[in-house]
Specification:
Elements lengths: L6 H16 L3 E3 L9 E6 L3 E8 L17 E7 L8 E6 L8 E10 L13 E9 L14 E6 L8 E4 L40 H6 L16 E9 L2 E6 L2 E7 L9 E8 L14 E11 L1 H20 L1
Helix pairs in contact: 1-3
Length: about 325
């Protein structure tokens, strides 16, 4: 029979195994200036990445996963003045994520009003991706060497929900089968009933107070003016992208050309026209509380392994 004292090192071993997985996670709440820990890949025009940005300056409330009501995040803007179709991606330096994991962020998309049509240059897209080397700009107009998912803020794009990879450099199509909304025409557009849980909101009262042009209500199915949880679950050879628990797209990564194992946060224009609005700083994507953790099944497997080990030792 296994003596009680022998259970301690076995339990410690199990905890060490779990700790090894936990130590592999990555997080950044941007409450301090962590810009030195990130690479900004901008291409080919002018974009801006503001780390430790106080988004309350735009009348935006604290993100849902922030602690203590802080309002610091990462703000991305693209194609501000140069008039070139462009975007940018940012990745944490020296990070690589293999196996199964979950990548999440609080995401706020903003555009210049009035709502819902938007002002000059209001239609831009934001999102997140995996499988990048973290050194190459990835956006809808680039050569795709990663897998990423994006959405428009104002819902005024012909394609509001998007997925890109080396196998779909200009984006997976309505008929590709990767979108949970179906395979018929318009499955990527905000007006598809599948996305009805989003949109139909007003800009925050604080933002309207600062920028009186921000009147009106967003299109049903659009993303702007609300905090959302963006999530990519990498499990085996598949990656599933969801927003607030609603699955948007799933891509089989088998055979894709991926340049690395890093993650990225992204923002891009949808055309070459820069906004002429003096308040074009309202067109952006804000990220907060970025986190990568092992997929829960990994912890379950470790726990089961530890229990089986204990049982075998007890029988010995």
């Amino acid at each position: 029979m296994l003596k009680t004292r022998n259970l301690v090192p076995l339990a410690t071993l199990a905890m060490m195994s779990l700790g090894a997985f936990a130590s592999a996670q990555f997080s950044d709440d941007f409450d301090t200036d962590t810009s030195a820990a990130w690479t900004v890949n901008n291409g080919p025009s002018d974009g801006t990445a503001n780390f430790n940005y106080d988004y309350s300056l735009l009348g935006i409330s604290s993100a849902p996963n922030s602690v203590g009501g802080t309002t610091k995040g990462l703000r991305l803007m693209a194609n501000q003045t140069n008039g070139i179709f462009s975007g940018l991606s940012v990745s944490p330096i020296g990070q690589g994520f293999t196996g199964d994991f979950i990548f999440t962020a609080d995401v706020w998309m903003n555009f210049n009003g009035p709502l819902p049509a938007g002002g000059s240059g209001s239609t831009q897209v934001g999102g997140m991706g995996i499988g990048t080397d973290g050194l190459t700009a990835q956006w809808p107009g680039s050569v795709q060497t990663s897998l990423f998912f994006m959405a428009s803020g104002d819902g005024n794009s012909s394609v509001d929900y998007r997925a890109y990879s080396s196998a779909a450099g200009t984006g997976y199509t309505d008929g590709s089968g990767v979108f949970f909304a179906g395979t018929g025409a318009g499955v990527r557009n905000h007006n598809n009933p599948y996305y009805a849980q989003f949109g139909g909101v007003q800009a925050p009262a604080a933002q309207v107070g600062l920028f009186p042009q921000q009147t009106g209500t967003t299109l049903v199915g659009s993303q702007a003016f609300a905090w959302h949880e963006y999530k990519i679950v990498k499990a085996g050879n598949e990656a599933t992208f969801s927003i607030d628990g609603l699955n948007i797209a799933r891509v089989d990564m088998t055979g894709l050309t991926l340049s690395g194992n890093n993650i990225m946060l992204m923002h891009s224009d949808t055309n070459g026209t820069s906004s002429t609005d003096p308040n074009d700083q309202l067109i952006n994507t804000i990220f907060d509380n970025v986190k990568v953790v092992p997929e829960p099944g990994t912890f379950v497997a470790v726990g089961i392994g530890a229990l089986l080990l204990l049982r075998r030792r007890k029988k010995a």
